[in-house]
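Structure in, sequence out. Go:
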């Protein structure tokens, strides 16, 4: 295990002032490179991202660093009642008809944190790529319930929950198991820009999804269990990356960036062993991420 030296002030890599402003602006600090001591993210770094939104590179900055998206040129009028109503009806049906169970695993993100800066891709891109490859190896997770039995699906189309001022959207990366890490990054950026411009987001896009990823790490949430989007068999919940004390290969205490993944699974389709093996495969990819950009 590679030692991970946490920036100053214990395990916090973001200054309190920077964290407060980032939360207000919906900026994911996990994707930022800090200019403070030992890479610490300071207030000036958040202000730089915010100023970038107002420049010609605003769309790129928004896509690269943020999970919460604001529509340009639009006053904040609260979340769309129509979108919230549709989402509520869908989630109510899922919660009432799907027997949920949850399994959580911890992942050492040391190498992902290092490589994502070098490759100029986001941490989410690594999670997408790792999940897509894990679904190839565990096709029974990429399944649907037809009322009688679980059916494995050929295409791997991953939806990602994106929070906006109008509500949640679920853009889909189609056939993402066929994409390289760089291609996943490019497609994800294009989808985020579509959300910003309110273009090309039809309900049918979400209906094509075979699996969903939802991330609350930018809000400081360590772990959570999401509601499955019917008729999918599972949804992956991503928590924040936080420095934690671990034992290294020499048996010495060290601090590593740990992230928790929780899979909400449909017990009609999957059992505990299925879920544990699937999560372990994702963990293996993320702890040795070089395999994700070799092909």
């Amino acid at each position: 295990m590679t030692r991970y030296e946490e920036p100053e002030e214990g395990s916090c890599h973001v200054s309190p002032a920077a964290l407060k402003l980032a939360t207000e602006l919906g900026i994911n600090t996990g994707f930022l490179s800090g200019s403070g001591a030992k890479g610490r993210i300071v207030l000036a770094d958040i202000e730089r991202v915010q100023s970038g939104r107002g420049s010609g590179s605003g769309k790129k900055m928004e896509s690269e660093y943020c999970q919460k998206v604001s529509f340009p040129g639009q006053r904040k009028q609260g979340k769309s009642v129509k979108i919230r109503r549709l989402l509520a009806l869908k989630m109510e049906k899922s919660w009432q008809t799907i027997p949920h169970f949850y399994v959580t695993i911890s992942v050492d993100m040391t190498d992902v944190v290092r490589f994502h800066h070098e490759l100029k891709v986001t941490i989410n891109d690594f999670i997408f790529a790792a999940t897509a490859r894990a679904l190839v190896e565990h096709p029974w997770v990429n399944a649907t319930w037809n009322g009688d039995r679980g059916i494995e699906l050929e295409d791997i189309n991953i939806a990602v929950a994106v929070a906006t001022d109008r509500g949640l959207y679920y853009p889909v990366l189609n056939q993402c198991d066929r994409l390289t890490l760089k291609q996943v990054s490019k497609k994800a950026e294009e989808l985020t820009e579509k959300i910003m411009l309110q273009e090309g987001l039809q309900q049918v896009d979400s209906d094509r999804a075979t699996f969903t990823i939802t991330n609350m790490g930018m809000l400081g949430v360590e772990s959570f269990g999401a509601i499955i989007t019917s008729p999918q068999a599972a949804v992956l919940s991503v928590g924040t990356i936080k420095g934690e004390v671990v034992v290294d290969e020499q048996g010495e205490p060290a601090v590593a960036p740990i992230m928790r993944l929780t899979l909400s699974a449909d017990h009609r389709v999957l059992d505990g062993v299925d879920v544990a093996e699937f999560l372990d495969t994702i963990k293996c990819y993320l702890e040795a991420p070089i395999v994700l950009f070799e092909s």
